Amino acid sequence: MKKEKILLALSGGLDTSFCAVYLAKEKHMEVHSAIVNTGGFSQEELDEVEAHAGRLGIVSHKVLDATADYYNRCVRYMIFGNVLRNRSYPLSVSSERTFQAIALVNHAKKHGYKYIAHGSTAAGNDQVRFDLVIQVLAPEIGIITPIRELKISREDEIEYLQKEGVVMNWKKMEYSINQGIWGTSVGGKETLSSAGELPEEAFPTKVKKSGTETVTIDFEQGEPVGLNGQTFEPLVVVKELEKIAGVWGVGRDVHVGDTIIGIKGRVGFEAAAARVIIDAHLALEKHVLTRWQLHWKEQIGQWYGMFVHEAQYLEPVMRDLEQFLESSQKNVTGTVTIRLRPYCHSVTGVESQYDLMNSSFASYGEMNRAWTAEEVNGFTRILGNQQRIWFSVNGKEDLV
User: How is the chain split into domains, by residue range?
Assistant: First the structure.
């Protein structure tokens, strides 16, 4: 009897390794795999995942590179919108999953796969992100999710694979790590409770620096195009900045948030480049945008980030929000200086030809050159008109 072919999204970690063996042994399917690189894998790591796929008995394996597509269609807009979920998390994994799913769907359609499998659990966001993209873009393709369907623990997965003779670094499997160009998530037993603290060894990037270090980022119409005086493509800036800032422990935190399925969740992350770029970009915007541009950008950026997180990237309104965000970046050009310290960073200065903090008009708190004292007095009287009328009618007893 001919076996059904299935395309497995393989990361090389515990969950997808279990899926590969389970689908072949228990479901009697012909397993093919693909890893979608969104910037988190080196060539050496990709080669190791391919070798691991062979050891698992997978019939064929393919590397799908979605890094540039992911940056151009999503990351740049998250920079424009200064997107940080709950003021801390730069949506590293949240945003990647949609583009990994899109790449898998395109590959499955091209090669005629009738089924796609992924290793998401029943308690997380990723199951929704993968399933939704597949259902919307390829409703004819079936979805199989062994971890979700079996409700199996990581300990049970390890026991099953060991019985099947699979050899892996089981100590490393204690933590679930997802790497991408926009950051790395870290999950472990400590993040399953509200009080656990991830140990230093849980984070892939080790802290090696002390003292301080200064870096500069050049922006052109909102995109990072230079680092420390050298011009690069935005993706190169992100990668190089991650190398520089990551060893300071910058961009580490534990994100607590509401999941798509309505429960609270905790996850650790390190995202040095993302956090530094977003903070630098926002600092530049404060100098070159008007107060109302900043006000509405904050609203639009929050909505954009929420929709990315909630698996709504394909919703047409997202293209409308992107038009607003891109339009707002016309004058977001300049150089931002950042000081790195162990586990933290700070913006120290901004230079831009579009800087609205212009001393030819006034120096804040010191000297005005574009208006007179009489004009300020008249302006203030008009500004307070409605308040004076209200208190004249209602009295001032509550204030004295």
Answer: 5-174, 180-351, 362-394
C-beta of residue 221 within 8 angstroms of C-beta of residue 80: no
Alpha helices in the chain (DSSP H): 14-25, 43-55, 67-70, 76-80, 92-111, 126-137, 146-150, 154-163, 234-246, 272-288, 291-309, 317-327, 373-383, 385-394
Cross-strand partners of 220: 223
- Which helix (H) or strand (E) segment holds residue 269: the answer is strand 264-270
Mean pLDDT score across all residues of the chain: 94
Supply the angle between the helices 373-383 and 385-394 in degrees, to the nearest 10: 50
Looking at residue 358, its pLDDT comes to 76
Strand order in the sheet with 183-187: 176-180, 183-187, 264-270, 252-258
Q: Is 99 exposed, middle or buried (0-12, 13-18, 19+ CB in 10 A)?
A: buried
Backbone φ, ψ for residue 347 (5° rounding): -80, 130
For 5-174, CATH gives: 3.40.50.620
Question: Does 176 have pLDDT greater than 90?
Answer: no
Which pair of tokens denotes residue 252? 């580490």
Q: Whole-model pTM above 0.70? A: yes
Between CA 388 and CA 392 the distance in angstroms is 6
Q: Strand pairing of 60-65 and 115-117?
A: unpaired
CATH class of 180-351: alpha beta
State whether residue 136 is helix, strand or coil: helix
User: CA of 217: how far to CAs of 40, 159, 209, in Å?
Assistant: 21, 48, 20
Does position 361 have pLDDT exceeding 70, yes or no?
no
Radius of gyration of the chain (CA): 25
Q: How far is CA 218 from CA 231, 293, 328, in A?
A: 8, 21, 17
Q: Identify the residue whose tokens are 């993968």.
A: 130
Q: Average pLDDT for residues 285-305, to the nearest whole number?
A: 97
